[in-house]
Design goal:
The protein is mainly α. It contains twelve helices and three strands; from the N terminus they run E-E-E-H-H-H-H-H-H-H-H-H-H-H-H. It has helices spanning 31-35, 41-50, 56-69, 76-87, 92-101, 110-123, 132-148, 167-177, 183-199, 207-217, 222-246, 250-260, and strands at 17-19, 24-26, 29-30.
Length: 268
Amino acid sequence: MTEQPGRSAPVYPTALGVSSVEAITLLGRDLSGELIGKVGFAELAFELIQLRQPTAEEARVFEAVLVSLADHGFTPTAISARLTYLSAPDSIQGALASGLLGGGSRFLGVSEDTAAFLSDTLAGLGSAPADDAGWDDVAATAVRERRATGMAVPGLGHHLHKQGDPRTPVLIQVARDAGCYGDHLRLFEAVGRAAPTVLGRDLPLNGAGACGAILADLGFPVGIIRGVVLLARCAGLLGQLAEEMRRPIAREIFEDVERHAVYRPLDD
């Protein structure tokens, strides 16, 4: 940009990273001298998003969330990444992106949806309940109002773990042990207790919902939580693609679908 007489040079402020000929500064610290080899990736990711360093306890809980979300086997997002790699092996970035783009309301978006549901409910309270019975009343009202709109209650149910998501109790205990158990998790657990009576059936609290509650308790804005989930899943997708390179299955998936495809009119 050519500077015009009487006008100052433009300034683009950032609290993240800047580079000069001599150094790279990240979060106000020298990347080479103060961060590389001294800060873990999860800790750095936390600070990049929140612009504050996590406590040791917060970093441990955040790491637990990332680990719990990294990979769940042959999910639609993993299959999408593998099939895209089959189609374009010269574009690993495209294969990775295809998997990330599949993060929505059914897969990977549940954490954000749960956090939003819990946050909206908490925002409507004058003060926090004094005991579990009070939390259960709040949860029952929230579940009832949610279902009255025809919408599912996020964080409830799992397509596979019908008797209970094995991640959920572990994640909640990690948060408790670290002193990071806040109102979002309190309400989340209350939803699990109140929902069977309101809905007339048992639905387990799923791990994705627990992650949303935990991230909200850690101070992550609701609108960024899906991005945190995708950060974790990115590692899993890279693992899927690395395995596809070593032991490919995408062609078999493609050919199996192609062999069993049949023409059937929509009104049939």
